[in-house]
Amino acid sequence: MQLPELFEEKMKGLLGAEYDEFRRSYGKERRQALRVNPAKLSAAEMKERSPFTLEPVPWAKNGFYYGAEDRPGRHPWHEAGVYYIQEPSAMSVAELAGVQPGERVLDLCAAPGGKSTQLAAALEGRGLLVSNEIHPARAKILASNVERMGIPNAVVTNEPPERLSSHFPAFFDRIVVDAPCSGEGMFRKEEQAVLQWSQENVELCARRQQDILEEAAGMLRPGGVLVYSTCTFAPEEDEKSVVRFLLKHPEFSVKKTEAYGGFAPGRPEWVRLTEEEKEGVSPERLEEILASVRDTFRLWPHRLDGEGHYAAVLEKAGAGKAEAPKKAGRVSGKSGRGTVDAEAWKLYEEFAADTLKNCPEGVPMLFGEQLYLLPCELKLAGLKVLRPGLHLGTVKKKRFEPAHALALALRAEEVKRTASYPADSGEIRSWLSGETLPGGEGKGWTLVLVDSFPLGWGKLAGGSLKNHYPKGLRK
Ligand SMILES: C[S@@+](CC[C@H](N)C(=O)[O-])C[C@H]1O[C@@H](n2cnc3c(N)ncnc32)[C@H](O)[C@@H]1O
User: Fold this and answer.
1) What angle do CA 192, 198, 204 make, to 5 degrees?
2) Whose CA is nearest to atom 1 of ligand 1?
3) 231 a catalytic residue
4) Which residues are CB-contacts of 414 (< 8 A; sequence separation ≥ 6)?
5) What is the whole-number distance in angstroms between the Cα of residue 112 and the centre of ligand 1?
6) Which residues are noted in the entry as S-adenosyl-L-methionine-binding (predicted)?
7) Atom of ligand 1 minimally distant from the CA of 107
């Protein structure tokens, strides 16, 4: 595979004797992986039930390499959010974030959603995930992946970091900054990354990373954890980005974190600072910061089965925990911004009484015709919000229509009527292409399952099951 000449020269200079091994990794077959959604089934169950040849990704609890012949993206379990296809070294970041259920977590550069969906899994449906993406089209993809994975407690926003930071000062327990970067670790995956590479772009990315980190710093509560990551090997964007940030922010330090033994340490000797960048810093302090960078992580494609990544776990000084997000307890008609229109709420309750055995919890909020459940009391006014929590459905004149997101966030046993078909059945093929299926007796909203996993809503009436699988997702 052809690589940019300047990139090769640069890496030769950095890696020395190790370069040949690094270069040879570009000739190796890329190993692909998926991450099981623990809200749907455990990793052990997946291993037993899955139609794919799986082998654990050593550093990711729910991560598995799949066989070269497997096509998990085409399997109906993918549409049911049973797993997320993710580059294996990228799975390290959310693991390093050490998220605990119930925390407030921000994923600042989140699309298409690999890290967000992994962070959400660690939250186990409790607490709050704010998943933000600056680019509108990418934010839509992020929202649809959050929905596909059935995440009930995520708010998806589409904002530049500086607008978000003025909204959430010292708010989050954990923040992930998976920064836009020069993507040197994407060369095997995307030819575009090779074509677009230049040293100027590396420098541009490094400047942008400083700006993003600056905004992230203000949104973290004292004692909170910030994970910074890139999928590039350029020290300007990796160790140097961290060093520049630490020089400016004495309240932050590198947190020593236990990780998979195959991760290599950060390389402070690759950091070249200008006189201006070092100004006002004592040599001892500089030495201390540089030494701490050894406790950041490099994932090399010639040392493990993955495309490569960099990650640093940073801690903000100070004690204390952010207040636990205020949860609404069981749903009520009250929203954070007043009362959800009584008629709208009545229509939802009628639907819930007829269809659900167990109602999801949260703070109801009506946006136009769309009814959502926020994971906690949250001020969102003034932000571009794509998904303010779990989308329950649309309130139409005299009726309530449940959302696809609700179907995917429910478990089969929480619903009164289900219709289950095996993944390889003709019914599932027909269903995914939008066809009506023959139904049984009775009438009302029915959760269609592929094997045991919710796939969407159907409406049973007159012996047939009308298809409500979203048109945009049909095959
Ligand atoms: C490496 S990707 C994120 C991948 C994602 N975390 C995942 O695991 O699926 C970086 C993201 O940052 C976004 N981005 C680009 N410029 C940005 C900026 N100035 N501020 C914040 N995000 C930016 C990009 O659109 C891109 O989606």
Assistant:
1) 105
2) 180
3) yes
4) 356, 357, 358
5) 8
6) 109-115, 133, 178
7) 6
CATH placement of domain 88-316: 3.40.50.150
Q: Which of 92, 106, 134 gets mutated to test ligand 1 (max ligand atoms within 8 A of its CB)?
A: 134
Residues of the chain with CATH 2.30.130.60: 412-475
Amino acid letter, residue 76: P
Residue 73 marked ligand-binding:
no
Q: Which residues line ligand 1 (CB under 6 A)?
A: 90, 109-115, 133-135, 138, 160-161, 178, 180, 208, 212
Residue tagged active-site, from 205, 231, 359, 376: 231
- The domain defined by 412-475 carries CATH number 2.30.130.60: yes
- Phi then psi for 417, rounded to 5 degrees? -115, 125
**Alpha carbon of 272 to those of 202, 204, 240, 290: distances in Å?**
14, 16, 7, 11
CATH 3.40.50.150 range(s) for the chain read 88-316
Token duo for residue 188: 């095997």
Is 359 labelled a binding residue?
no
The interface pTM score, or ipTM, of the predicted complex is 0.99
Q: Are the C-beta atoms of residues 68 and 287 closer than 8 Å to each other?
A: no
Atom of ligand 1 nearest to the CA of 183: 1
CA of 110 to the centre of ligand 1 (A): 6
Ramachandran sector of residue 188 (left: φ over 0; alpha: ψ -120 to 50; beta: rest): alpha
70 is in an annotated binding site: no
